[in-house]
## 1
Amino acid sequence: MQKLWQKSSKQRFDRDVEDYTVGEDYLLDRKLVLFDVEGSLAHARMLKKIGILTTSELKKLEKGLAEIASLAHAGKFSIKKSQEDCHTAIEMFLTKKYGEAGKKIHTGRSRNDQILVTLRLYSKAKLREAQKAILGLIQALKFKSKKCRGIPMPGYTHMQRAMPSSVSMWLESFVESLEDDLLLAKAVAKIIDQNPLGSAAGFGENILGLDRKFTSRLLGFARVQKNPMYCALSRGKFEWMVLQALSQIMFDLGKFASDLLLFTTKEFDFFSLPDAFRTGSSIMPQKKNYDVLELMRGNVGIFTGFQYQIQEVIKNLPSGYNRDFQLTKEPYLKALRLFLGTAKIATSVAVNLVAREKSLRAACSKELYATDEVYRLVKKGLSFREAYRKIGLEF
């Protein structure tokens, strides 16, 4: 099969080089087909607007792109390794079916800006999913906090009992942190909401008169990403920014899991989850393990590892498109999938969490109230330091 970039069918290429350069892209791109179709449809309609496509050609391309979308929804749109990516597979499908109309779809476009707009649309969609997921988790935590109102709980510093707290205070601490995290996610969503389509190979186009504002409206972007070289520069950078925002949420979820792993031990017995959340041991019949929380905690490191991979690929690249960018796709897609899965599990944990009130009240021993006693003496006129020493001698 002749590749898009081959000048002649006689041009030969090394199979090992092909395996190495294509990598897993043709498999990863199955997740991106629908977003590439969306970008291609907007581009085709813009080409009709500026006189490159006829009405008849546009109708053919619209029909073909709709068919591709239908196949992709059903998991039946194939991308061959020889095609390298979804962009080539889509263009070849359209060309095979509609001839000259299919050959025109790439006019004024490069695979560089094609993947940029595809990933940008994908990122916007996943950020919307992420924000919805976190709002759901916040609501679950708030509901559980309300149900547990009035249940005391020891507060800890240095892993030792410190001062009186409550189950509601503990849960609401995660609520407020997640609400702040959402502000960061919304800020990143605003930053990436700009259209790179029309930047072509990274230097724009000066002959055809591409209407980038038109495609921005069609695709729902807030604005055009004006400088074409900045479009290329934002590859990897924007993906890293998305993961950076979501990493703050992952840190919260990791801490939530870590707390619960401690507080569900027999030694604490502050909380429990139904058996559906626990696994067993292959040798110890009595064991009921909270593996799901261990994996939630561990996956924070896996997530930041994906973020670090992207950072290391892009950090010293020169301006313009470089093939290195291809290596950011896999960790990015995996990171977003991991985030959404972790947020879903965390929400389910919050909904099903059981506070063991008897154990929590029993753990609120006398020493937790030592500082309160100090302040009572202060209110009677004793200096803080004298009151501190007087109460301290009692423990």
## 2
Amino acid sequence: MLQTAEDIRLLNEKINHASGFVSRINDELSKVIVGQQTMIERLLIGMLSNGHVLLEGVPGLAKTLAIKSLAQTIHAQYSRIQFTPDLLPADVIGTMIYNQSKNEFYVRKGPIFANFILADEINRAPAKVQSALLEAMQERQVTIGDTSYKLQEPFLVLATQNPIEQEGTYPLPEAQVDRFMLKVVVGYPTKTDEQMIIRQNTQGLTAPTINPVASAAEVLTAKELVRSIYVDEKIENYILDIVFATRFPEKYNLAKLKPMIGFGGSPRASINLALASKAYAFLNKRGYVVPEDVRNVCKDILRHRIGLTYEAEAENVNVENIIDEILRTVKVP
């Protein structure tokens, strides 16, 4: 939809007013999280875009702490599910329990009935648990017995997984990985940041307290505003070119990537790239998307949606290399 300069100006004012809670959340998170700004930013993008987030990184990089702390900054219900190989679907979604005195069954709801779900070490759960979680993530509802229960908004699954451990893990099926809007690879902190972490964790006896500084209503209002952010047709075509280049690289002067890519991004990649770009614009208090927004979130949207061939693995070409090459080649509007 074409918008006038006046429409954009009014939208900017609304965003400026409605995004105040983001800086309050960042201030609270900075009490316990040192550095890792990209990870925090991606968690906020997921929250504002109504998209689930998968954090991948070696143990000890504050993945779980960041998710737990983000949930604590908002007046909303939070639950943590520690995934293990012996977990059952009922442990996640709940089950029917027989009440002997009343001679009837009643529903005991599981930890999935919350606003923020921390799915810790998600790749440790077997297939049945993964499928139960899949319905909740995609349909935003849970079926127990013959009845389906809607999950309350905001509903966000924030999952962690350890990429180096293979013992007792179940690789996530492509269908489930694709349900995550963003896959964020969390790296090591800088030397300066790690020095701050050492001081923070060795000098004080009590951990800093995270206070709730935003309401669920503020988050829902912000999500509506994110949807109304303006995306020009040229930006839409840029998003489409990037995604189509993962499917048909030879049409974008990227014939050398053809043997490297087993499958490209689905339409869900295009939708999520547009939504994440809008959320990134919102975080920067803008009512319109620019190409740099798209480029900034591109890797987190696409890295789990491109399948590599054996030839790519043989030549040590990873998904990051392919996305970099696509961003270098596809024409920027």
## 3
Amino acid sequence: MPDTQHLYRPIRVLHLEDSAVDHQLVHRALERSGIAFTMQRVETLQALQDSFHSASFDVILADYRLPGFTAIDAWNIVLGLEKRPPFILLSGAIGEPAAVAAIKLGMSDYLPKGDMGKLAHVIQRAIEIQKARLAKARADAELAASERRLADFAEHLQATIEQERAAIAREIHDDIGGSLAAIKFDLAWIARHSRDPAMLEHVNVASEMLRHAIGASQRIMMNLRPAILDQGLVAALDWLCTGFEKRTGIKTLFRAAPQDNELDKAIQLTAYRTAQEALTNISKYAQCSQVTIELSDARGVLTLEVTDNGCGIAPADVDKPKAYGLRGLHERAKTVGGWLDVSTRAGLGTSIILSVPLGTGEHADNQEPFNDSRYSL
């Protein structure tokens, strides 16, 4: 239920005016308008300040020139309030430049004393605009808080996923890897001690299947937890590209500028996962014949670009609600203070660029150019 007492209470007006006659004119103008109001008059800056300690107001009306100060001085006091009411300049002819300057400072409106019949309308409009501004400010603050919570959740989710991947990789290595190794030894023992051709044929078939299983488990472990990152991002991307070309048959070019600085582990993992996800999408959708991956850290920004010459991505597919792959890459980039750009044209391929500020540009001026010797992996 709405607060009807709040909806119908009188408008509380604070009137900064040194003329008792003009104050009475304002009072009569508001009475004639039919609005419910209460009004308090103050004449000095000190009285203005004191009034805010004892009461709250819906609107302030202020003459421009008062003894020893102007409405600008009063406005500077109002600016210090946590919840400042609309401030309306109600004065004689002060000239258009002064009125415009006052509005630019943030005052709500200006009304000449000769147009007193419009006062109630000006007050109500200023109050409504103030309410709309406050509502927008609250909505903006709530949206910003929601975005912060979402970013924190995405970062927590990514960290949790990586921890779970590492745990699964350890399980595969310790349990499945150990069991496969034991089977390999048993098959080797059988092969050494058996002379039955049929038995040896079965052993050979089983050994071949076991070799594939061991290779698959190693590949899964590397995808889950890229231990090769311990050798650096360049080595990890090189290995990733090599495996991608072998699996898909798509020509893959990789080049990297010399890395002068040691990258943070989180940044390395973000870059690696971005390349990994991009290559996965390329293998599924791009219908391309060549992929190029470039890595540089020029001008204090790590840049990873994955480009293909495939069919491109339709704009509708980029913006569709279930484009979780690209959205996940955007969110992952944010966790390390970076951003992701996607450039695509139908029939001309797609380029995904990850950019991550490294926090220092000291090495940028001395950054060596790319090695021109491209190589196919």
## 4
Amino acid sequence: MKLWEKGTPLNKQIEAYTVGNDTILDQALIKYDCLASIAHAKMLAKIDILTEDEAAALEKELHNIIELDTKGKFTIRPEQEDCHTAIEAYLVGKLGDTGKKIHTARSRNDQVLTALRLYYKTQLADTKDLATEFGKIVEAFAKKHENIIFPGYTHTRKAMPSSVAMWANAFVDAMQDNQPLLNAAYNLIDQSPLGTAAGYGVPLELDREFTKTELGFSRIQHNPIYTQLSRGKFESSILHALSQVMVDLNRLASDLILFSLPDFGYFELPAELCTGSSIMPQKKNPDVLELLRANYHVINSLEMQLKTIPANLISGYHRDLQLTKEPVMRTFEITNSSLSIINLVFEKLQVNEANCATAMTDELYATQKVYELVEKGMPFRDAYKKVAGDIE
């Protein structure tokens, strides 16, 4: 029985198309939907829609669902469409009429928004933790190799002396600058939509402050129409922040692929981080870094997909918005796994000090020679030309 069903059977082809892959995606939301339902049940008891015993029974069964989900024993059947239906069906099966009361004063619209925002908050917290861990691991790498110099490049040509510490800490600084973006996205979604129903509220006096506090939101999203307008908008802010993390990892991966090339040999990737060739027995390929580099572009496409879906819609809910869920989930999965991977790479990455020293050829010191002449009183442009002439 679907939550919206009124007795007319739905065409099976239409059903399959409209459900899409929500039954798969919603497995990630079961815990959060249950937590929101627990808070909602407590609030309904507080305003005398449920008895205390009914609320307690619902809370007990909702915790049971969370436990079953943790063990991989709570699944969403295709005909149930989503986690909301599966959860309510379980509650009705266990509690009868009490289970039927859980949907009082809410719609699937505010129900899914609440579950998604709880999910987003958890995922963003994980991203921030992984980004912080990245900073610590790379700083330790820089400290360990702080006395090793190697070439710096512009235009993919040797330019001036650099160092392992300067290079590594550039990416530490970049990741630190990503933290305010992640915090801004977190603060934006830290608003409770529960109680706004399908975007126009409900004709009951709800205690939205109570559910906000129960669920750990910092504030309420008051205007019910705006809760629907914010779908896609809030998620775009998340994906923008995550794309900034990924662009740094993209550039970092490119550096590591180049600098670990045997022709350069500044860095060495242990064999356990590399794959091989099915035809060339000598190959040790940096596939993991190549995929990490490519995943930035995957996220860019997901961000564009997310931003275009809500465009041109009039205010209120539209089923188009169902399709904003997957891009966000995929982006979190890619970003957090990529941060975990790069942290592992830096824990294993080796520096070949001898190759770094050999690469420090004379042309890298040309600018230094110019400034030695400047310090002796020669105008910069004359010093520049003199050193350039000496090189030629």
